[in-house]
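so i finally got all the pieces together for this one. its two components total, 669 residues if u count the protein bits. some of the lines might not be protein, just check the labels. i wanna see the whole assembly predicted at once instead of chain by chain like last time, that was a mess tbh
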Amino acid sequence: MTTTPYLAVRDLTVAFGDVRAVSDLSYAVPLGRTLAIVGESGSGKSAAALAVMGLHDPATTRITGSVTVGGAEVVGMAPAELRALRGSRAAMVFQDPQSALHPYFTVGAQIAEAYRAHNAVSRRAARAHAADVLGRVGIPAARRRLDDYPHQFSGGMRQRVMIAMALVNDPKLLIADEPTTALDVTVQAQILDLIADLRREFGSAVVVITHDLGVVAEIADDVLVMYAGRCVERGPTRTVLGAPAHPYTWGLLESIPVVAEKPARLRPIPGSPPNPRTPPTGCAFHPRCRYPERVGDTACRDRMPELTGDGDRLSRCHLPRPDQVFRAEVLPLLGTGDQHVR
Amino acid sequence: MLLYVLRRLASAVSVVVATMFAGFGLFFLAPTDAAGAICGNNCSAERIAHIRASLGLDEPFLSQFGAYLTGVLVGRTYEAGGVVVECSAPCLGFSYQLNQPVTALIADALPVTVSIVAGAATVSLTVGVLTGAFAARRRGRVADRVAVAAALGLGSVPFFVVALISALYLAGTVLPRAEHIPISEDPLGWAAGLLAPWLTLGVVSAAAYTRHARAAMIESLGEDYIRTARAKGLSERRVVYRHGLRAAITPVATLFGMDVAFQLTGALFTEAIFGLPGLGVLTLRAFAVFDLPVLMGAVLVGATILVVMNLVVDIAYTVLDPRVRLT
């Protein structure tokens, strides 16, 4: 396993007009590792991922900071270079395969097209390759299904098609944006296993965007929690889920239902995510947070906390000893003792 | 699929018969007397009565309609100036003013009209869809505004004004003189002679296609699968003109089915203004002299074309959209 990050994001800011969707986001993903980006809808996780692929419309989006994929700078990259990168070295799997696949083209044509966009091969060769990849992602009788249209596949099979299309050029970076959200629970695990298998097989860097901590626990080596466009907590999955250091992450854990002998009450996070047009002052989470008075004075309302910590383990909170607060006050509420991480 | 087509054909036949019935009734009730129109100005009451009897105009409405339908299906005979004329099926009646069976008149005129409409439809589809796609890609920018304004402007001018200007100033100068040479005789001459009417009718009706195609393209370009296409690393041209346009064609096909009626009406003006001997000119003349059999024939042919075109468009959906199944 190499430690050189294949994907490196530094101080990334994405703004649509005067609305900031992502602010000062930094992270790195080496080859062979999986990073999960967690957050609610509107937290900026998809906007950040689209920026990595250079998929924002430059006419309406302002992007600053740096994104390097395999050493190449994506921010400000020329369109032709960007096209050469997309779908070959970096590929993306989208949330809803029903709408992300073109309804009027056969899956074979769509996969072969992705292959031919980056390889000068004949139609016949591209078609044979498409059948191979389709088989590799676990679609039975792949060769015969090449001429089927997306609507002829089930939801899970459709997502496999989407993944096959992303993998057709053996990308070194795979970004999966909520890959299991539109799927049945029974199928979700299969798709996650597939992504994990493929990462092991090809040693790619993988970024999985999700709002589901179950997905994180299952697939990710590292996790980054986003709130209101900023990273609020980052670190190895076991430590972040085992001893989270940010009240927002606590809230996420508390709102997961757990099967236990004595069911604990679900505690949803009160309030709703801030409107990005009128972000709160200070810490963006303070209006929904239970602990601002612990910090004393009005720090949470006045000052945005810095992202601090040691090495890989970072969090953005004014609370002096969040680990103690978590152990003493949050953990008992989870109803599973120390076993809350699946 | 076959069952669907058969069912649609059955309903198409009933629509055509109903149209004929309505048309027939309308002329039957009209205050103008066909016999008087044939006879002319200085005509005795006796002579009018004689003509009425020989045309069967004194018979009840239903029996006249029945005789007409029989003629369409199996043929009938007419008596014209003491001579008995055999009119074989499909007999659409006999024009006493032109002294010819209507079927023969329409057989001469129809190829002209079909040539004009087919050419104009090709022009309007191509120009309209490409302009619409072009405008959608540059939505909100100058090129888009110009395209939308041009489409709106052209769509607002009455068609005959555009046709008159084109006939007076373009045909015979910039474009070849308008004439109809049968395609079987000289395909190049056929195309050259019809170029002016094609462009005129085509460009004017392209306006509607531009607006439709632009709206459909703006919608399809906002779809998730367009983002997928970009994420695959396809060129912008391929994203827009293959993935975007492919999805925008279905709504345009719907418009096409409805637009054939407009094209036929447009052909009427086009033929009159460019002096082409098509169905429109035949109908206009028949209208002026109250040549009822010719009018009926034109109504029948027009209705049939419309009904068939609608069926063709519905069947085309199954080809255009793989998700559509006809049952």
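The two ends of chain A are 26 Å apart (CA to CA).
Residues 185-202 of chain A form the longest helix (18 residues).
anyway lmk what u think
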